Amino acid sequence: MNKIIPKQMFFTKGLGYHKNKLQSFELALRDAGIEICNIVTISSIFPPDCKIIPRSRGIKLLSPGQITFMVLARASTDEPSRLVSSAIGLAQPKNKQQYGYISEHHAFGQTRKKTADFAEDLAATMLASTLGIELDPDAAWDERKKLYVASKERHFVSRSIAQSAEGHKDGLWTTTIAAGVLLLD
Fold first, then answer.
1. Tally of domains within the chain
2. Would residue 3 count as lying in a domain?
3. Burial 60-94, CB ≥16 within 10 A → b, else e
4. What distance in Å separates the CA atoms of residue 113 and residue 71, rounded to the nearest whole number?
């Protein structure tokens, strides 16, 4: 049996407004550059030796109708001025031959930065727990080194991407998405 293990990943985000909820989602996908894909949402493991590539390069590797695996965060509102946000976080050990963790978070009333930070902390906490390590994200974060120090021998690097928006003033559906798109080759 062939194993399906992604070799590359890129991050993207998008925003869409429309009178129909589904079409606002489509416009958010279009803004993110992934509207041509047949999306299969997956859970949280970042494969060992998977390379993170720039969004622009990743989008060029997509083909219309392609089955595309991704971790997807999505939030929508039709309430004027309601703050909505979506984020993807990644935590991976410094040793790239170990697997990492991808988290998704969507929220109401949170800024882009708060949503991004939460997703990043969530990914680091989830990775630590799978490795049997207690992690307090506030205490473990090393601002100078820009990494989580879980123990003397365990360091995680992390990143996130987030999209936020206020609900459209005229009550159109507002959809935010953030995605970690995994590619097989």
1. 1
2. no
3. eebeeeeebbbbbbbbbbbeeeebbbbbbbbbbbe
4. 19
SS3 label, residue 65: coil
Residues 6+ apart with CB under 8 A from 50: 6, 7, 8, 9, 182
pLDDT tens-digit series, residues 102-137: 999 999 999 999 999 999 989 988 888 877 776 666
Phi (first) and psi of residue 122, to 5 degrees: -65, -45
- What is the SS3 assignment for 26? helix
Within a domain: residue 2?
no
What CATH number does the domain containing 67 carry?
A: 3.50.20.10
Q: To which residue do tokens 């990943």 refer?
A: 9
Question: DSSP for 124-151?
Answer: HHHHHHHTT----HHHHEETTTTEEEEE
The tokens of 2 are what? Answer: 């062939």
Among candidate residues 15, 6, 7, the one with its CA nearest the CA of residue 178: 15
Question: Distance (Å, rounded) from C-alpha 159 to C-alpha 166?
Answer: 24
* CA–CA gap between residue 80 and residue 59 (Å, rounded): 32
Q: How far apart are CA 183 and CA 43, in angstroms?
A: 15
pTM (whole model) above 0.70: yes
Q: For 53-98, how does the pLDDT look when each residue is reduced to its tens digit (9 = 90+)? A: 999 999 999 999 999 999 999 999 999 999 999 999 999 988 888 8
Provide the 3-class DSSP secondary structure of residue 154: strand
